[in-house]
Amino acid sequence: MERLQKVIAQAGIASRRAAEKMITDGLVSVDGEVVTQLGTLVDDFQSITVNGKLLSREEKVYFLLNKPEGYVSTTEDDKGRKTVLDLVVVPQRIFPIGRLDYDTTGVLLLTNDGDFMNAMIHPKFKVEKEYLVKVEGLLRKETSKQLCRGVNLGDFKSGPAKIFDVKYDDTKTNSFATIIITEGKYHQIKRMFEAVGHPVMKLRRHRFGTVTADGLPLGEYRRLKPHEIKQLWNLSRFGKSEER
User: Fold this and answer.
1) Which residue is catalytic, options 25, 31, 43, 101?
2) What is the DSSP string of 168-205?
3) Would you call 77 a catalytic residue per the annotation?
4) pLDDT per residue as tens digits for the range 153-175
5) What domains appear along the chain, each with residue ranges and CATH number?
6) 228: helix, coil or strand?
7) Which residue among 79, 88, 129, 217 is least enclosed by CB atoms within 10 Å?
8) Rounded distance, CA 81 to CA 10, Å?
9) Mean pLDDT in residue range 218-242
10) DSSP assignment letter at 43
11) CA end-to-end span of the chain, whole Å?
């Protein structure tokens, strides 16, 4: 169940504050009864009218996109670049959960559920993001340990990370690795490796929480399955994430 003013705001009728005023002004009815008490809880099956009009509740939807390069992870772009919404064409008003850089590929979740989005990106829940990265130079054990401890990026220090599966290419000039973080700062992975002298050449998000894009072609999307949504919710509710 959710608070009445929140349901009204989520339907796009008004802001949360304006919805509260509508309620206290007696403009909102639930199942035919006028409700003026803020914080009234309603479920998905109750009928809500605002100013005499039946509230239409948008279905909450959750999508997984295997993002290709060349798209920005926003709903619009002032530079005229293509956005991820050019790939995920659905009737609902959705938005990406966090961002992947223009040239970064991989798992990107999209939804119209604001609570779900906040739960996925709030730092206190420590939802894991796993990336496959190719960097310049040979990534040594001590450098990996430094990244795992956290590095100073000027405006903040990165939190603890996990790094494994470090390999070198055939020419022994570049490195491949898997890195897991629970933060999501702007350009964070690129800045972390840049700070230790290994600029990123390629970056792909392999996993978000418990979800991967395995089997999903680049540029394609699908709905999250009910059990996937539940698993992601559980990460925030119980503070758990996958362990390697």
Assistant:
1) 101
2) E-TTSSEEEEEEEES---TTHHHHHHHHTT--EEEEEE
3) no
4) 999 999 999 999 999 999 999 99
5) 2-54 (3.10.290.10), 62-123+210-238 (3.30.70.580), 128-208 (3.30.70.1560)
6) helix
7) 79
8) 28
9) 85
10) -
11) 35
Token pair for residue 103?
């040239």
* CA torsion through residues 181, 183, 188, 191, sign: negative
**Site of tokens 């609570």:** 115
Cα separation, 50 vs 72, in Å, equals 37
- pLDDT of 92-115, one tens digit each? 889 999 999 999 999 999 999 888
Instruction: For residue 33, list its beta bridge partners.
Output: 30
**Residue range 173-182, pLDDT digits in tens:** 999 999 999 9
Question: Residue 243 — very low, low, confident or very high, per pLDDT cuts 50/70/90?
Answer: very low
State both tokens at 165: 């599966």
Backbone φ and ψ of 3, nearest 5°:
-70, 140
What's the half-sphere exposure (Cβ side, CA atoms, 13 Å) at 84?
A: 33
